[in-house]
Amino acid sequence: MKRHEFETLIIEAIDALPKRIRDRIEDVVIVIEKRPRKRVGRRALPGRQELLLGLYEGVPLTVWGRDFGGKLPDKITIFQEPIERIARSPDEMPRVVRETIWHEIGHYFGLGEKRLRQLEKQWESRK
């Protein structure tokens, strides 16, 4: 997939978030990289960095306090090549991108992996 097409999927995924969630997102930069750098991938997903679809780096809203003045914006990185590998067809790309964006935004709001997996299962069961 061409980069500009992938960027469009990211924008659409963000726009698909409920307004009440979009309105609460502040100081977050979303970037696209082709694939995780080895150092980042090993740290975030040891032994399976080829499956790393996205990465949240920052201070979750649940941790914020008075001592956090002057911090840099949080960063969400979306990795295009792993997403392309996970999606079984071009038609699945929007779904995989949406789920990845939702997952990383969940980290921004302070949700851990276990809670995100629970919510994802609940969401899947409603389909």
Provide a quick synopsis of the model:
The chain is an alpha+beta fold and 127 residues long. 48% of the residues lie in helices and 13% in strands.
Task: Describe the secondary structure blueprint for this structure.
Elements: H1 3-15, H2 19-22, E1 28-33, H3 38-44, E2 54-57, E3 74-79, H4 80-86, H5 93-108, H6 113-126
Parallel strand pairs: 1-3
Antiparallel strand pairs: 2-3
Helix pairs in contact: 1-5
Model description:
This protein has 127 residues and is of the alpha+beta class. It is built from six helices and three strands. The protein has a single domain, classed as Zincin-like, CATH 3.30.2010.20. Helix 1 crosses helix 5. The longest helix has 16 residues. The chain is globular and about 40 Å long.
Order of helices and strands: HHEHEEHHH
Residues in helix, %: 40-55%
Subunit organisation of the chains: single chain
- Whole-angstrom Rg: 15 Å
What is the number of domains? 1
First-residue to last-residue Cα separation: 27 Å
Strand order of the largest sheet: 1-3-2
CATH-derived topology: Zincin-like
Mean pLDDT: 85
Structural class: alpha+beta
Main beta sheet: 3 strands, mixed
* Mass-distribution shape: globular
Features of this protein?
single chain, about 130 residues, alpha+beta, Zincin-like, three-stranded mixed sheet, 3 strands, about 50% helix
